[in-house]
Design goal:
alpha+beta
């Protein structure tokens, strides 16, 4: 590799390691350099000739906005890249495996994992140029051809496990609706002690009723909020009040809280023990919040009279589909309309038309 002496090179302070008998290098790089030196395969190249997936451009705005909105408190994981064989590692004296990685400017550097982060960095720097001075970690592997690069992509991604929505909600303090969901899990009567904080699906033998993610999505619907919309203290207290008022009218919720009905029996027999019931009640609730307090209380009292058992024919083809609960958006809509009908809320012509169309499919 002596020809590197005559080439212009990128020089990265790096640490050398070994995996499966092959050297790899961990380095840091200023964000401003990332778009200039790291490439990804063009989208029009056939999949069998690429080393990674095509770029999903719809993901880029959210990722770049994350950087722009949190310049003092963001975390971006390392990029993984294959670099051509025109590299040399120069060790520091007295410090084996610590030194400078020299990469010829004539060699290709291909991202194996992190092409969306790379594109997001490029967009974020345009919006907030001061981010250019920050650094990101890079893991370099020496390129051994397309086959090896494709295998690296498969290995890096097939073992990645995405955290559950509930766990992401639990750990996310930036998202307003996640913060409110955690507040409600600690303070709203139907959720205290009955919220599954980690899993988005409740195990059969669990003593929990609602997933934290279900509380988040239902409350977001209740308050008419988008995924990143701010939620005021007044709105947070409004949500708390609604769920507590609803709790007083849902007999089965109170039976479980009083230990007169087991969680397992509740989840086995009633739609109000599941996310679809919670979501439908939230959609009804946002209409109730538009009413006067007297009218709202009158409508809520009628909730007590509804038969929430899965065996109730009113839920057939609505909450229930082929004998099983379904949380598809159409089922949530049909369940919401039926709840409105049973508590005497007005159903719009548009809702009636859509209901008829869905039930006749």
């Amino acid at each position: 590799m002596d020809h590197l002496e005559n080439d212009f090179c990128y020089s990265f302070p790096a640490v050398r390691g070994v995996q499966a008998g092959r050297p790899f290098y961990i380095a840091t790089c200023p964000l401003r350099i990332i778009p200039k030196i790291f490439s990804y395969d063009e989208e029009d190249v056939p999949p069998e000739l690429r080393a990674q997936r095509t770029l999903n451009k719809s993901r880029i705005p959210e990722m770049s906005r994350y950087l722009v909105d949190n310049p003092d408190d963001y975390v971006f994981s390392a990029l993984t890249a294959s670099v051509g064989s025109e590299v040399r590692f120069v060790e520091n004296n007295g410090a084996p495996n610590i030194g400078i990685l020299k990469v010829s400017m004539n060699t290709s550097i291909l991202i194996n994992d992190g092409q969306h982060r790379r594109a997001a960095i490029e967009e974020a720097i345009k919006l907030k140029p001061e981010l250019a001075q920050d650094n990101i970690a890079i893991v370099f592997y020496v390129d051994e051809g397309l086959s090896r690069s494709q295998q690296m992509f498969a290995d890096l991604n097939q073992n990645a496990i995405r955290p559950s929505t509930s766990l992401s909600t639990l750990y996310d303090d930036r998202d307003p609706s996640s913060r409110v969901a955690k507040f409600l899990a600690r303070n709203a009567k139907p959720f205290i002690g009955f919220t599954e904080m980690e899993k988005s699906s409740i195990p059969i033998k669990s003593n929990k009723i609602f997933a934290l993610s279900a509380i988040k999505h239902a409350t977001r619907s209740l308050l008419r909020k988008g995924p990143k919309d701010e939620i005021s203290e007044i709105e947070k207290e409004t949500a708390l009040s609604f769920w507590n008022q609803l709790n007083e009218q849902l007999v089965e919720w109170k039976l479980v809280q009083d230990k007169s009905l087991t969680v397992r029996e509740f989840r086995q027999d009633y739609i109000t023990a599941h996310g679809i019931g919670l979501q439908a009640l939230a959609l009804v609730g946002r209409e109730l919040l538009d009413m006067s307090q007297e009218s709202r209380i009158g409508a809520l009292v009628k909730v007590r009279e509804i038969d929430w058992r899965k065996s109730n024919k009113a839920w057939s083809q609505r909450a229930m589909s082929h004998g099983r609960l379904s949380k598809a958006s159409t089922n949530i809509f049909l369940t919401t309309v039926e709840i409105k009908r049973q508590i005497g809320l007005k159903i719009t012509d548009e809702e009636l038309e859509k209901e008829k169309e869905l039930l006749n499919k």
